[in-house]
Amino acid sequence: MKIKQVVDALERFAPLPLQEDYDNAGLQVGLTEAEISGALLCLDVTPKIVDEAVELGCNLIVSHHPLIFHKLRCLTDENEVQQTVRKAIENHVAIMSMHTNIDSVEGGVNYKIAQKLGLQNPVFFGKTKVVDGVNGGEGVVAEFETAVAADDLVLLLKRTFDVECVMCNQLLRRPIKKVAICGGAGSFLLDDAIAAGADAFVTGEMHYHDYFGHDQEIQIAVIGHYQSEQYTNEIFKSIIEEACPGVACYLTKTNTNPIIYL
């Protein structure tokens, strides 16, 4: 099986036109006509990730965050992105990224977060889009089977996503049934979450000023960008294993989160 077949399978699941205008999802580095020897699945691509792929005998890396996001003006060792690109080329490793297209697609990142939390009946909120018959939306609203208290939601988030702290506004003094979700940076969807009737809004990061003015209106729960998207590689794995049986898939063991809590 060729790398191209794996790339095509991923893009059928989450077509590239679903991505935001600012994004750069898709093939980042390498050629796709080579026979695939294995795929390493990760959130970010760094030199250590390329080393891990080489050690595992993988010639494809599938990441969530694009390695090449801003224009490459040269290819030296000036920064980590350039170093990573060079190392991938030297080792004949192809790199592709599935970013806001896998965020927004049905069964994508936001659906995965809902699944991990045990939420039911996920539906899109915010702006929606249909590409080649595939539905996408900016966020997902889903429900607990039985409403939970705000402090229990915080504990569930900490346990499920291995979060050292959850940044919240004032704890809600009513049961939480409906939860709005946006993996990564979700400040832009807070008003839409309120309009959707959500009791809580779970996201990866938010701006400081967006916490103001919502006490007892909605429970804001911010768990960290990396933490909110850490299970994205499980989505990649299930897509590849179903569409391309026999391709060896590995979930990275390298934690690329640049933020530490002291």
From TrEMBL:
UniProt keyword terms in alphabetical order: Metal-binding
Cellular component per GO, a single term: cytoplasm
Gene3D superfamilies in the record: NIF3 (NGG1p interacting factor 3)-like
Official protein name in the record: GTP cyclohydrolase 1 type 2 homolog
Matches recorded under SUPFAM superfamilies: NIF3 (NGG1p interacting factor 3)-like
UniProt keyword Metal-binding, yes or no: yes
Species for this entry: Prevotella sp. GTC17259
Pfam families, sorted: DUF34_NIF3 (PF01784)
GO molecular function: metal ion binding
Quaternary structure (record): Homohexamer.
KW Lipid biosynthesis (keyword) present: no
Binding site for a divalent metal cation 2: 64
Taxonomic classification: Bacteria, Pseudomonadati, Bacteroidota, Bacteroidia, Bacteroidales
Protein family (similarity comment): Belongs to the GTP cyclohydrolase I type 2/NIF3 family.
PANTHER family: GTP CYCLOHYDROLASE 1 TYPE 2 HOMOLOG, NGG1 INTERACTING FACTOR 3
